[in-house]
Amino acid sequence: MAKATYDEALRRLLLHEGGYTDHPSDPGGPTNFGITIHDYRKYAKPKATAADVKAMRLDEAKAIYRAKYWDAQRCDDLPAGVDDAVFDYGVNSGIGRSGKVLRRCLELPDNASVVSEAVIAAARRADAGRLINAICDERLRFLKSLRTWPVFGKGWGRRVAEVKASALQQAGRSQATRLVAGRDGERSGKGVVPVARTAQQGSAGAIAATGAVAAQQAHAAGIDALGLVVILAVTLAAVVAAYGVWQWRQRQQQEAAA
To answer: Which domain-ending residue is among 188, 209, 234?
Structure first.
């Protein structure tokens, strides 16, 4: 969806991927920021060594993530939350698997992994929350089937749970935003004049500020408590009157627009 979605997804992903590793049980070999030596050779330095991977800059890793995973899976075109779930799945298990799983969860043929226009359209029609749950649940089932689950399973399970929670939250926020926008559009579509709250706040606020200054000056001049009460009462009455006039003007404008 938006750039902010990618930035947040990448921030969390980097927390999981960590820094340089060369674990004997990891088939990816030397890895830094989650970028394997194979991908670093393909996208940045063709003859990279383990030392080059260890010296990899963060901006290089981010560029690879954007090109190989986010853009390749068309995450900018997927619904909020779904984009995050697909992106992280692709990084963890490869975009070939994540693309097929996305298709499968959308009840589309999974004989290909490319995120096509048909996939995008189906994802936008789907219930985002259910789709996110289906993707993450399938992802966890797959990870548990791997022979390396006993070694990496605890971290993988925590990662999938965090991705699911974040993706569902993003989908919920997006849906709430659309609902609010829809209600506002319905109201404005009936010819109702938008409320000029700044004008209301400006007039009433100016009167209140003037009254406060007057009270301070009166206190400094030695006027007794009764005099201060009178000044404040007059100020309050003026504020109430200004608000009443503002409401009357708004009603007049709305009736004229109806």
So the answer is: 188
